[in-house]
Structure formats: structure tokens, C-alpha cells
Design brief:
Largest sheet: none
Helix content: over 70%
Number of domains: 1
Oligomer: single chain
Strand content: under 5%
Number of helices: 7
Shape: elongated
Structural class: mainly alpha
Radius of gyration: 22 Å
């Protein structure tokens, strides 16, 4: 688990260094590193949530684990998405006070549509892209905090290892 957490921390840190000029291949590498950290943890967390439980309780433990993972992802995306949107709007308003003429509704998705981009001067469009990249990188920087908390909690999980119950039973019978 600790290796998974370190991969995840490394990936999130690297994603927090993104800018509008970061090459797509570099972003892909950062995402793969982050994905390795997350991907390793999913089966390990499932197994550790049922470790030591009676067979009748394992289904409940698995479903509880999945439920809280879903709730955590939903809340995380909502909270971080809202904060990122507000950061973006603040950065855009500071960089371009005339932004309201390009986006009177305040919907940031409109700014990246092909129709809107065609009417925005290149220097203004660059400010929009820079503000978007900066707001995304800032959110990844804030995401480092829960990752560090997760790594600390991983350290408290202890050194328990899964054992094969069949071989344990066989040894006990011998």
C-alpha cells in the first residue's frame, strides 16, 4: 500500500506542476504515474477491508468499502471542481476585466467552445488558457493534502498479511 501511496503522491505532485505549455506526452506520463498509484490501491483496499472477517461479513465489508469510495469520489469531484471553477473565474476576471463581453453567462465551458474561441483575440485566448491551466494545477496542489493524509493512514494499517485459510486449516489439522 505504501508504494501505491508514493506513486499517487508523486503523480499528483507532478500534475500540480502543469502549465499551458506542458506537452501532451508529459501530461500522459504524469497521469500514468497517478493511475498506477490509484490502480494498485483498489484491490489492496478491497482485500484489506475483508481481511480477518467471517465469510458471512465479507459481502457487507466489500459493499461498504465500495459505497464509501463512491461517496468520497463524488464529494471530491464536486468540492474540487467547484473550487477550481471559482479559481478560474477569479483568475480570468483579474487577467481580463472585459471577460464579461466574451462570456456574459459566466459559464466557463463556453469559453473553450469552437464558436467562442473564433471570436476571442489570440492574446486574450492565451490568457484564458493560462488561467485554466493555473487553476487546474492549483487544484492538484491542494489534492496533495488528502494524499499525504492517506499515506499517514496507510502507515497505521499495520503489517498484517493475507493468509490462505485452506493451508492454515490444513496445518491446524496436522
Amino acid at each position: 500500500m505504501i508504494i501505491s501511496g508514493l506513486f499517487f503522491l508523486t503523480g499528483i505532485y507532478l500534475l500540480s506542476t502543469l502549465s499551458a505549455d506542458t506537452a501532451r506526452s508529459i501530461v500522459t506520463i504524469y497521469m500514468v504515474i497517478t493511475g498506477i498509484g490509484v490502480g494498485f490501491s483498489f484491490p489492496l483496499l478491497s482485500m484489506s477491508s475483508i481481511h480477518g472477517l467471517d465469510m458471512r461479513q465479507r459481502g457487507t465489508a466489500n459493499s461498504t468499502n465500495t459505497f464509501f469510495r463512491s461517496i468520497g469520489m463524488t464529494l471530491g469531484v464536486t468540492i474540487y471542481g467547484t473550487i477550481q471553477n471559482h479559481l478560474l473565474m477569479d483568475k480570468l476576471e483579474k487577467a481580463m476585466p472585459m471577460m464579461k463581453q466574451f462570456n456574459p453567462s459566466g459559464d466557463t465551458r463556453v469559453l473553450l467552445s469552437q464558436e467562442a474561441r473564433a471570436h476571442i483575440p489570440p492574446e486574450v485566448l492565451q490568457k484564458i488558457v493560462d488561467a485554466l491551466a493555473d487553476s487546474i494545477a492549483t487544484m492538484f496542489a491542494w489534492a496533495i493534502i488528502p494524499v499525504i493524509i492517506a499515506i499517514i493512514l496507510i502507515l497505521f494499517m499495520g503489517p498484517a498479511r493475507l493468509t490462505d485459510q485452506f493451508s492454515e486449516t490444513k496445518k491446524a489439522q496436522s
